[in-house]
Design brief:
Helix content: 25-40%
Number of strands: 14
CATH superfamily of the largest domain: Fructose-1,6-Bisphosphatase, subunit A, domain 1
Number of helices: 8
CATH architecture of the largest domain: 2-Layer Sandwich
Strand content: 15-25%
Order of helices and strands: HEEHEHEHEEEEEEHEHEHEEH
Bound molecules: D-MYO-inositol-1-phosphate
CATH class of the largest domain: Alpha Beta
Number of domains: 2
């Protein structure tokens, strides 16, 4: 056990591995079935009964073992629960990252769970139960996909890169103008552009070296907490898109295979600063 860490991270990882695998079975069994779908902030911000059930399953499962821990879950947040990051271990959970994919039966759907202590992610799991791809990392111990070590690519410039982007779930003129500007700049100079429809998936792809860069502004902490540590443990960098220090609650992320690539891109981006989580 890391002597500076108030919890046994391996025990935490064992627990969330077991819980994610159970929850993953539920997601997989539901993806091709008819769903009950509601909207939250706007007409493209979906929630299904599976998001709600999986979040409950994960939070209850963790609380049974760690009753004093705190939770920031996508669906609990939408229902009004607000927690601030502190020295108390806090689980940051997206039960179904890629809900729009799930609604359409598109297989990029991930459970994303990060454990944060003192504003720093200590461990993370991203599990795509449809494709059976289980990504995990504990601080200082490397990143793994289905128990095999993974590493970011060696790309150091945009002209050698495959880039992941998203349109996100906002459709104001200001926001779409900024996203269109950034995507067309990246598309013009990169090998290609991909949009996975799940921030966790995009980050997992950077961690395994299949994509070289991912940038999004307007994202939430639950979409990116696990991916933050998995990318860093795979040798990548995670920064704020403006080039400064990454803050989990600021709703902005740029993950890259190298500092050189991150430094090349951030000055070229138009910036969007959403309200913090
Ligand atoms: C969304 C996905 C999507 C990203 C959005 C997120 P959700 O999360 O990660 O890729 O572009 O910004 O809100 O709603 O499917 O959990």
């Amino acid at each position: 056990m890391n002597s500076n860490c108030p919890v046994n991270l391996h025990a935490c990882m064992d627990l969330i591995t077991k819980l994610s695998r159970q929850a993953g079975k539920l997601i997989k069994s539901r993806i091709d079935q008819e769903k009950s779908i509601e909207t939250k902030a706007n007409r493209i911000d979906f929630v299904t009964e599976t998001d709600l059930e999986v979040e409950k399953m994960l939070i209850e499962g963790i609380k049974n073992t760690y009753p004093s821990h705190k939770f920031i879950g996508e669906e609990s947040f939408a229902a009004g629960t607000r927690e601030k990051l502190s020295s108390t271990p806090t689980w940051v959970i997206d039960p179904v990252d890629g809900t729009t994919n799930f609604v359409h039966g598109y297989p990029n759907v991930c459970i994303s769970i990060g454990l944060v202590i003192d504003c720093e992610v200590q461990l993370g799991v991203i599990f795509n139960p449809i494709l059976d791809m289980f990504f995990r990392a504990i601080k200082g111990e490397g990143a793994y996909l289905n128990d095999e070590p993974i590493r970011v690519s060696d790309s150091k410039c945009l002209s050698d890169s495959l880039v992941s982007v998203e349109y996100g779930s906002l459709r104001t003129d200001e926001f779409t103008g900024i996203v269109n500007h950034n995507i067309s700049y990246l598309a013009k100079h990169a090998h290609g552009i991909r949009s996975g429809g799940s921030a966790a998936w995009n980050l997992a792809m950077v961690a395994k070296g299949a994509s070289d860069l991912y940038v999004e502004m307007g994202i939430h902490a639950w979409d990116i907490a696990a991916g933050d540590i998995i990318v860093r443990e795979a040798g990548g960098v995670v920064i704020d898109p403006a080039g400064c220090h990454f803050e989990l609650m600021n709703r902005r992320i740029l993950a890259a295979s190298s500092q050189e690539l991150a430094n090349e891109i951030s000055p070229k981006l138009k910036q969007y600063f959403p309200e913090h989580d």
